[in-house]
Amino acid sequence: MQDGIGPAVESLIRVRYAETDKQGVVYHANYIIYFEVGRTDFCASAGYPYPRMEEDGVFIVVVEAAARYRKAARYGDELTVLTRFGGFRSRGCSFHYQILLPDGTLSAEGETHHLFLDSAGRPRTVPEAVRRAFATFTAS
Amino acid sequence: MQDGIGPAVESLIRVRYAETDKQGVVYHANYIIYFEVGRTDFCASAGYPYPRMEEDGVFIVVVEAAARYRKAARYGDELTVLTRFGGFRSRGCSFHYQILLPDGTLSAEGETHHLFLDSAGRPRTVPEAVRRAFATFTAS
Amino acid sequence: MQDGIGPAVESLIRVRYAETDKQGVVYHANYIIYFEVGRTDFCASAGYPYPRMEEDGVFIVVVEAAARYRKAARYGDELTVLTRFGGFRSRGCSFHYQILLPDGTLSAEGETHHLFLDSAGRPRTVPEAVRRAFATFTAS
Amino acid sequence: MQDGIGPAVESLIRVRYAETDKQGVVYHANYIIYFEVGRTDFCASAGYPYPRMEEDGVFIVVVEAAARYRKAARYGDELTVLTRFGGFRSRGCSFHYQILLPDGTLSAEGETHHLFLDSAGRPRTVPEAVRRAFATFTAS
Lengths: 140, 140, 140, 140
Known about the structure:
By secondary structure, chain A is of the alpha+beta class. The longest helix of chain A has 17 residues, at 29-45. Chain A is built from three helices and five strands; from the N terminus they run βααββββα. Chains in contact: A-B, A-C, A-D, B-C, B-D, C-D. At the B-D interface, loops of B face loops of D. Strand 2 of chain A pairs antiparallel with strand 2 (59-69) of chain B, so a sheet runs across the interface.
């Protein structure tokens, strides 16, 4: 199964000691942070880095996040995050993520759903520049 | 809507500065940690504290987690986590969570699904003592 | 040895699973977050809650932090943070912290040094209201 | 000033959204985690990766950590961590760190002090293989 539209953006993450827990593996909430790393890299690869979005007065908030855990990652593992775009909704969009262990097996996967806000914190339609950038990228 | 079986266990959490992000609100992955606080309190209230489980060679791992975000929590807010049991599966169980802002409105809700492992990390059936403790509690 | 001026403010913290690492104990950087919890409680006890400071345009930043670790804290431990005021400098102040295990032995201790900033991020003298609140409290 | 012995090991860290706080900058405790990333890379560069140490029954614990903050790092910044060895003590060692902003200015610096433990958690002398690896590297 391969969720999402268009090419996957690849991020490399080295697991930190801080990210493990007393079971000796990555604490589950940290995968949600790894998704954020993937999303940040996706926006940059798609030509609209997220820091620039906020400078332009566009804020993306998370309205839903889900993760399914398959095989635990460990301290020192170099993980690959594959991030794909999940499409636009009227005032939002979604992303799909797969996190792979060094040997290529799936560690976790999930998705996040987002709303676009203006600088006053009100929901707004998808900015045209973002729509164009992501559409061009996912069609590539 | 009220997911879960039996009474809710209530946890109080004061939002830390460390848990906020540059949007001025609680970073979304931290709610998954708040769920863990609720789950820990649930196990203690149900008469089988999770630290004791691990001493008894029973480990609970998270196989799925999901959160839906409604209204952002802020630094200094005292949040209430309501945790309800979601029932057993053959080798696992689930929990439901609601996180309320100080004025009682819903900040976030979600659920986690778990597997029971033995101390060698193999899936195992639900320990009888856990089943009994949770069943008694949810029937109360 | 008892560093700091005046009474200690006491905070209770239950160690979260998320805060442990693969050595089975609290990851060392998390004690710096426990210090923050103590500092927040100190400001509230001294009559000038930190969230109010920021509303009043006064921001406290950390310019130095140090911790010495004595005995590891573990998942489920209820820790006591004792926070004492360390005095004012021209544009800053400091705090001292002791973190105690459930049996009263010292887990860690440390201190943080701070600068006061205005809402534009420029160093400023200690706000008179803060000075008065902390001075009254430490003399109590 | 350049603390530490021998060459600096360089680590690159991209600041995550999760690592910022409501002041819009990196939360101070996270620099202590950046130090850990630097230390991990130092051990790998010196020929004795820390994951291998733990497999060999050698555990390094932190007994002291300190950081001095100069200029705040922000979301998206690519930081450079420079880690230098601080020398051995009878049963421990230390490391020095400098964290640089993308333009090369100093964001923070600090040091950590460590003890070596055996797998039973007792202090032990510096393992000969570690001493040799680090001595060779710092003399390089």
